[in-house]
Structure to design on (336 residues):
């Protein structure tokens, strides 16, 4: 059985081919134009998806050595994400499925980030705890099986990835600022302290943290207009350390409460070297069994969509041609 899957939730156009549970190709076209605007412009993103989706699908099929006649199903990201971007991918998947008379399989984007851990070895055993961190989401999820999950905690306002990008913008860094903050943090010292909002339970908040960075900069820039540039690496190191501390405090609490020491991270921020190092430290310090995906499966890609499509195909979980994109597709719908 061979499945072609499409990812178009934000500003990356992806296509992947999976055969008998093995990824045969994973092609992604990224949109650099959004750097000019300091963030993703939804209309620009959707128009670029129109231009990229056919070449990306053709490239994925060629790389996998497959023809359209070899396909047994079409997977696609239904949500969450940007409506215009999702609409391009969903419409393409529906049109292709209709023309080839193939079943459709809808996939939740964050579900796919979690199951990306089953693309390559080592693969976690169930149950495990997964911290999903991206530009739009921050969650702690109890993963009981491929299709049985429960959200234990999530952000009540901003996501960790957004906190990286927004503070980076305050520093004058280009979008996306997360990777640049990570690079500069390696050359800096975390000598500035910022707010760490305190919430009960396992929920997160990053709005107060961002505000504290803003007020700190305003105060220091009033005394020295060149403060930010002169201390940029140290500022990046301080921001990164604070965000990671906020994430790790809740993750440690989740491990304590569930008594599950199999811990995974997923999503774009899972590529952050500081967060990866913090997880590795817990592996030694508290004997966690840690799972960190390779970089290509941290950021948005269709390989993770294909893996979920493959799993759902086995259980006969198909969508019909009336399906439409869901920008706010709720993750709790995956709960058992």
């Amino acid at each position: 059985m061979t499945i072609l899957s499409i990812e178009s939730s934000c500003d990356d156009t992806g296509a992947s081919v999976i055969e008998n549970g093995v990824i045969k190709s994973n092609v992604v076209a990224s949109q650099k134009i959004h750097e000019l605007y300091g963030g993703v412009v939804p209309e620009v993103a959707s128009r670029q998806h129109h231009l990229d989706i056919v070449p990306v699908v053709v490239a994925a099929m060629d790389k996998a050595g497959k023809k359209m006649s070899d396909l047994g199903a079409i997977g696609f990201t239904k949500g969450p994400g940007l409506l215009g971007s999702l609409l391009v991918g969903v419409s393409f998947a529906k049109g292709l499925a209709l023309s080839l008379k193939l079943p459709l399989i809808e996939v939740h984007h964050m579900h796919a980030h979690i199951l990306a851990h089953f693309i390559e070895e080592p693969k976690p055993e169930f149950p495990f705890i997964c911290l999903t961190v991206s530009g739009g989401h921050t969650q702690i999820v109890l993963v009981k099986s491929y299709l049985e999950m429960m959200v234990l905690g999530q952000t009540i306002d901003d996501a960790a990835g957004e906190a990286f990008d927004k503070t980076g913008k305050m520093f004058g860094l280009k979008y996306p600022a997360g990777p640049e903050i990570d690079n500069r943090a390696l050359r800096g010292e975390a000598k500035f302290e910022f707010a760490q909002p305190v919430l009960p339970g396992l929920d997160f908040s990053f709005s107060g943290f961002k505000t504290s960075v803003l007020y700190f900069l305003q105060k220091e820039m009033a005394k020295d207009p060149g403060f930010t540039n002169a201390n940029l690496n140290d500022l990046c190191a301080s921001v990164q350390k604070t965000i990671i501390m906020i994430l790790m405090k809740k993750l440690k609490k989740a491990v304590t409460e569930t008594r599950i020491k199999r811990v995974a991270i997923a999503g774009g921020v899972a590529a952050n070297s500081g967060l990866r190092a913090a997880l590795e430290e817990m592996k030694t310090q508290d004997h966690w069994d840690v799972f960190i995906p390779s970089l290509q499966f941290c950021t948005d890609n269709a390989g993770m969509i294909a893996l979920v499509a493959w799993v759902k195909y086995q259980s006969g979980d198909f969508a019909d041609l009336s399906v439409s994109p869901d920008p706010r597709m709720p993750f709790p719908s995956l709960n058992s």
